[in-house]
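FYI - complex with guanosine-5'-triphosphate, inputs then prediction.
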Amino acid sequence: MKMPPELGRHSSGFLLVTLIGRPNAGKSTLVNVIAGWKVSITSSRPSTTRRSQYAKKDLGELEVVFVDTPGMHQPKSELGKKMAQHTEDALDGADVIMLVFDASRPATQGDRIVMARAMKELAASRGRSCALRIVVNKIDKISKAATVQALAAYYNLAKDTAKSVAKGLDGRAPQGTTKGAADVVPPVPRARSVISQYDIEIFPVSALKGAGVTELMESLAYSGSSPTLQPAVEQAPVSRPDAIYSLLPISQGWDTLQSPVPDISQEYYVAELVREQVLRRVADELPYSVACRIAEWHPPYIACDIVVERKSQKAIILGKGGTRLRDIGIGARNSLPAGTYLDLAVKVVPHWQDTPEMFEQMGY
Ligand SMILES: Nc1nc2c(ncn2[C@@H]2O[C@H](COP(=O)(O)OP(=O)(O)OP(=O)(O)O)[C@@H](O)[C@H]2O)c(=O)[nH]1
Ligand SMILES: [Mg+2]
């Protein structure tokens, strides 16, 4: 995975933790609570996160970089394909995959696909020892008994998936002796015992309330010190500007902020804050069609375009007499330094989601 240089491996006690899961499972909420600041915007709309976002956290001696990723879904646009690519890139080289499920609703086929993707990564990583942490999230929405049931269900799903992935990888049934693929793919452990061969743990969590997060972090610290998870030692020490960490949240005032880092520029972050306010105020399919981009950047003066795909959508964003747009502006300004002048405009750009030059310019 291409990581911003600021976040490279700096010591032997370094872990790259990639969060994956279905849209809306609570990945971004979890990363934010772990980091202690708003790394990614969140919303009740699926597919809120559109690119990978990084957060660094020291856990004792261990340096951990958490990567929030777009939710895994069947892409319906070029943007959707790019989002899926971001997630795939973030899986590449992960020391720990943190698989987030929404326990407040039954597991779906989509959840099974995500589990299979994680297991394949685990199986393929033999030798570099990738660990899996399964997060059964949103337990504040369900009873204790339902939480226990969900933990058992996801553990069984992990076990069954591990078996079928092992079978698929070595091309033979768990106890079979079929020749062929086994010659080209390194042998995997016997499928029955596959799950016990891996470093897998499962945690009940409420990212929203912060419950279970400490235990989850403790399990990472343990992985980092375990000999099977010793990451590569960086040969040359890399200087570490702390820009990304002090950059956000934007609270101290524009003049005290550091220069943008390549990963999350201030511009992108502010555009995201505006998009978050839009997502809070519109319903149905509209969130997929909304993007935000900075049109002028002279803090404290900032002009931001809210981009939609159709004229009818523009009318929705504006609201009656422009009231919705005004509320979006008020909401976004609340997260920005006092004195920020945020100039919002709504622009119609048909098919931006299927125009890579366009959405790549927006930072997705
Ligand atoms: N009740 C409850 N709600 C949660 C919890 N975690 C997240 N949510 C809510 O679930 C919704 C989705 O959360 P996000 O963090 O944006 O989910 P995500 O997995 O990042 O979603 P995408 O970016 O779309 O893939 C938001 O409305 C969150 O407030 C939780 O532990 N409990
Ligand atoms: Mg997200």
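Residues 243-361 form a domain with the GMP Synthetase; Chain A, domain 3 fold (CATH 3.30.300.20). The first strand starts at residue 14 and ends at 21.
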